[in-house]
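Quick one before lunch.
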Amino acid sequence: YVWPSQTLDALESARWDQNGHNAVGFAGFVVPCDLALQGFHSGRANVADWVRTAYHDMATHNVEDGTGGLDASIRFSEETSRAENPGDGFRNTLVEVTSIGIAHVSIADKLAVATILAIENCGGPEIPFRGGRVDAGGPNTPGVPEPQQDLQSHIASFARQGFTPTEMIGLVACGHTFGGVEHAPFPGISPEMDDPNNTLSVSHFDTTFAHFDNNVATEYMSGTTQNPLVVGSNDTTNSDKRIFASDGNVTMKSFADSPELFASTCSNLFARMLNTVPRGVQLTDVITPLPVKPSKLQLTMSGNTLKMSGEVRFWNMVADPQRTVFMLLDDHAGGTRNVTLPAAGVSTATGGRYNAAWYTLVPQSSTSLALDAAAGVTGMRFVVDGKLEDQGGVGFAVQDGVVFSDTSCYTSNQEPFKWRMDVAVRNGLNPTRVYLTQIGSTDSTGREIAIEVDVPPPAMPVAVNVNYSIWSIDMTDGNFYNIEAEVDGRKLIGNDVFGYGATGLKACPTST
Ligand code: HEM
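Model of the protoporphyrin IX containing FE complex:
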């Protein structure tokens, strides 16, 4: 896709900005991979909780009527209180995954991308990610398989979810490379252990419970497995034993023989699991990393100066002090300014398989790039070691039509906050509407909802400089907002988020 796109930019960051500079934050919960909300040595691992949560959320899917699927319905207590969903893993997963605030990304997309990140950062294969999942407004029909059910019910259950008997063996083996069965919710399967290194008495499915590998298959084939759903003392609940042996061990043997086959099969099946969504939900194309991606772009009007800041990420690039990076900044007057960009940091993704180098758009030892308000800015291009990066000729468009004005100010800096948001609107733009969209507003079920606040047009134009006029609105909250406008029926999206907490918000001058 072409930058900028509000939704795709957010999904792309969630997917690829994993570790290091500007990391979105999911990986912080699963690196190192034995991190657990219950603590080290609990026997639990967040990575295992996340994978199981994604599966239990999806497993309500019905291919016939199109209901259920990965839609974050597992967040409803009606679902977590069902006998098919025992344990605290679902709640823990949702607390962690939803603590990462990313506007325009649904809870279900967060769960999907977090599951992918967890697997990739814990030894697993790369998994293609599509976005666009829609959060359910209520619980789905029950349908998660349970260990005491017989093989025929499990085959029927996976068929209802959209998986063949062979795919069932694969998906169970792929899932059960992580984690195990905990004593508290399953006392009949997992005995009390009194082990200081496994305080919650979790009987692990294989010897590497926080790491993706084919040990779940090699240990099963060699007969050394301690998988509690294979060698449990009560044969009724040995569901993995029945499932793994259901094709005469052909599939499990192929996994034990080839770690590569296991990894590629799991990549496919995990993607299928995560892409199983209610009928009518349209997923995006696979989100691949943009080779060059501006980020955190911010424009502020300050007198006659348009202050600009932000960063740019170059994918598949390691730090190199010899490298030269320039930004070519095009303006309304037809001019181009050449700015040398300092390095800002590096990031990695998928357990270190990819690197990215970040540069700041702000010149060395300044806090912002000062532009002449009259000339403004229309777009950016970059030159890296002499090579032009301009998205195949279209450039990286920057809108300077509606920007935050530093004449914004507060009259009360204690709750309830009282402040005035000033938006500088470029003369000649003639928007039919200027409005603010509230960031992070949710309904009673946690779903993101759009709240828009109209900024009234000024009764009398208030000039901020010869090129911009102020539109103002009095605010009484501490929320953050994005500035947007409608021009000729088109949506114009501002470049950054501002709210009461905007840096440098001043006290309003007191009138005497
Ligand atoms: C017939 C199908 C399945 C049955 C009967 C089953 C059963 C179980 C049981 C009883 C547990 C223990 C949960 C706990 O201690 O709280 C468990 C854990 C787990 N399951 Fe499954 N499972 C099935 C399929 C799957 C699939 C398809 C996946 C994912 C692809 C999966 C992923 C996991 C993971 C990651 C854990 C570990 C959770 C943790 O350690 O916190 N399971 N499963």
